[in-house]
From TrEMBL:
A GO molecular function held by the record: serine-type endopeptidase activity
Signal sequence region: none
Protein name, UniProt field: Trypsin-like serine protease
UniProt keyword annotations, A-Z: Hydrolase, Protease
Family membership: Belongs to the peptidase S1C family.
CDD domains: cpPDZ_Deg_HtrA-like (cd06779)
Length: 471
């Protein structure tokens, strides 16, 4: 496994001691009074005097030169040290002043990051009841199904709180179809959570845990994550992935940014991701290990800032070290919108609702061949239903429900589980016009009881596909 490591270089300044000979104001040499020396002795004295004078002059010049150089270099070193201190302080402020970070490293140690970011990461458990075929139906003896409780696990990131709730962002595929959700924190305490908002097209969801249910001890140990700028990422930059891998609890892996702005088409074999056929979303590609259970966890830069939400990995025996994360800068506005939506819980069986239509998903092939917009094609409308009273007709395409984009029938059925009969919602439809064009309109629809719509299904005089259900 490739390991990326930052090399730290220590700058050492050599220290010099400079000594200057004292200057005197008298004559260079005082000769004692006496007879004048001549001959060889006189010549020798002259030579000694010349050498002494030259040495003195050379020493003065050298000392002055060294002093000048020292004077010039000194301010530069001070300036550099000041700049380094300012940059480090700014970096630490952006990284939320992570404890134990040493300024000379230039970036944080992985252990420092794990210690600081882990209180912001939660494990999420999704429990649901699904209908599965019984044993005999596999051999052609009857097609009955039986309910079975299933459990899946993922990760989430604490991104904020309001007056009554702690807010956690995760992947939509982590929480979809959940009958109950629970969030486990750093202190191993588990609390029930509810859906705040979802965006299936971008594989995002925000869940909420009531603050009144969280103990003071847990609140003292958790933290809100610091969000970074994913647009400033560079290929080769070291990153850390933190999440609930395989449901074993929090774990840490590290790697590098392999690529940015990656897109994945519908024919790409990717685990746990979603893509809008009309506009493919972009991802951060990394070789940090992202395993099942890591979905919804954090991809963190070396400042301890969350720059991505772990979402997918390549599912192929031929591929190794290709994980994907949703860039925070791309989805920050979407997350803020989800954080401010109304928290909802699944309604009871006697409160289940219906729009009063049967429909089909308009996929990419249908869109390209017939020019029908992506969404849910209305195949029929139940007379007297909320859809009928609101003016929805056969041939319309439902593209939005209560402000959320609808691209397939499964998204519509998932949302209806959180809306009781009798509630009025805004539904966006595309209406066929002349020349193969469509006009958009938003209608207010009062949801009816699900069982009533199903009972009146056969009362419709329109031809219906027997495989269609009433929604």
């Amino acid at each position: 496994m490739f390991e990326y490591q930052n090399n730290n270089y220590e700058n050492r300044n050599q220290m010099y001691d400079y000594y200057q000979m004292p200057e005197t104001g008298g004559p260079a040499c005082n000769r004692p009074s006496g007879p004048k020396k001549t001959g060889k002795a006189g010549k020798l004295v002259k030579k000694i005097g010349a050498i002494t004078l030259s040495a003195a002059l050379f020493g003065s010049v050298a000392a002055g030169s060294f002093q000048a150089v020292n004077t010039l270099i000194g301010p530069t070193e001070t300036s550099d040290n000041t700049a380094a201190t300012e940059n480090t302080s700014a970096s630490l402020l952006k990284a939320a002043a992570i404890p134990g970070a040493a300024s000379e490293k230039g970036s944080l140690d992985v252990s420092d990051i794990a210690e600081t970011v882990m209180p912001s990461i939660v494990s999420i458990t999704n429990k649901s009841v699904q209908e599965i075929q019984n044993y005999f139906s596999m051999f052609g003896y009857g097609g009955q199904t039986i309910p079975q409780e299933t459990e899946s696990r993922g990760s989430g990131i604490i991104i904020g709180k309001n007056d009554t709730e702690l807010l956690i962002v995760t992947n939509n595929h982590v929480i979809e179809n959940a009958d109950t959700l629970s969030a486990g924190f750093i202190d191993n305490q588990v609390y029930e959570a509810n859906v705040k908002g979802t965006d299936p097209a971008n594989d995002l969801a925000v869940i909420a845990v009531p603050l009144e249910s969280i103990s003071a001890d847990t609140m003292s140990q958790i933290a809100v994550a610091s969000i970074g700028d994913s647009d400033s990422l560079k290929v080769g930059e070291q990153v850390v992935a933190i999440g609930n891998a395989l449901g074993y609890g929090q774990s840490v892996t590290t790697g590098i940014v392999s690529a940015t702005n990656r897109t994945m088409g519908s024919n790409t074999q990717v685990v746990n991701t979603s893509a809008d056929g009309s506009a493919l979303p972009t991802y951060i590609q990394t070789d940090a290990a992202i395993n099942p259970g890591n979905s919804g966890g954090a991809l963190v830069n070396m400042k301890g800032e969350v720059i991505g939400i772990n979402s997918a990995k390549m599912a192929s025996t031929e591929v190794e070290g290709m994980g994907y994360a949703i860039p925070m800068s791309r989805v920050s506005d979407i997350i803020e919108t989800l954080m401010n939506e109304t928290t909802r819980t699944k309604v009871s069986a006697d409160q289940k609702s219906s729009i009063g239509i049967s429909g089909l998903t308009v996929n990419e092939s249908v869109n390209s061949i017939y020019g029908i917009p992506s969404g849910v094609y209305v195949a029929s409308v139940t007379p007297g239903s909320g859809a009928d009273k609101a003016g929805i007709k056969k041939g319309y395409v439902i593209t939005g429900f209560d402000g959320k984009t609808i691209t397939q029938i499964q998204e519509l059925t998932e949302l209806l589980q959180y809306y009781p009969a009798g509630e009025t919602v805004e539904i966006t439809v595309k209406i066929p016009a002349t020349g193969g064009t469509y006009t958009e309109k938003t209608l207010s629809v009062t949801l009816g009881a699900a069982e009533n719509s199903n009972n009146t299904q056969t009362e419709s005089g329109q031809q219906e596909d027997k495989n269609n259900s009433i929604y």
